[in-house]
Write a structure and sequence with these properties.
- The structure is a single chain.
- By secondary structure, the chain is α+β, with helices and mostly antiparallel strands.
- It has one domain: Alpha-Beta Plaits (2-Layer Sandwich), CATH 3.30.70.
- Strands 2-3-1-4 form a four-stranded antiparallel beta sheet.
- The relative contact order is 0.30.
């Protein structure tokens, strides 16, 4: 399992709406190979949001790119974003 982690910047006054709309879209999209969606809203910077999605593999994530559902998601979220997203795929190392 890998984690896709994306740092996003949105209009601060629309942050909660963005998280709700984007989250609902992702749940309905039900992308194959995705498991769990988490949003983190910054306390210090109300325009900053981090999205984390668990994927079976990088390939599971990249195979959805360019699909009609993916393109609709990009169009929807682009209305809220104030800067290009930054992120990637990560392996978690948990320290106990």
């Amino acid at each position: 399992m890998i984690q896709e982690i994306i740092v996003q910047h949105v209009q601060p006054e629309k942050r909660d709406e963005y998280i709700k709309v984007f989250g609902e879209f992702l749940v309905k999209a039900n992308y194959p190979g995705s498991h769990g969606i988490k949003f983190f809203a910054s306390i210090e910077d109300p325009s900053r949001v981090i999205l984390m999605i668990n994927w079976d593999s990088v390939g599971a994530h990249t195979q959805i790119r360019g699909t009609p559902t993916y393109n609709a998601m990009r169009e929807l979220t682009g209305k809220y974003q104030t800067a290009k997203s930054d992120g990637g795929h990560f392996l978690m190392h948990e320290i106990k």
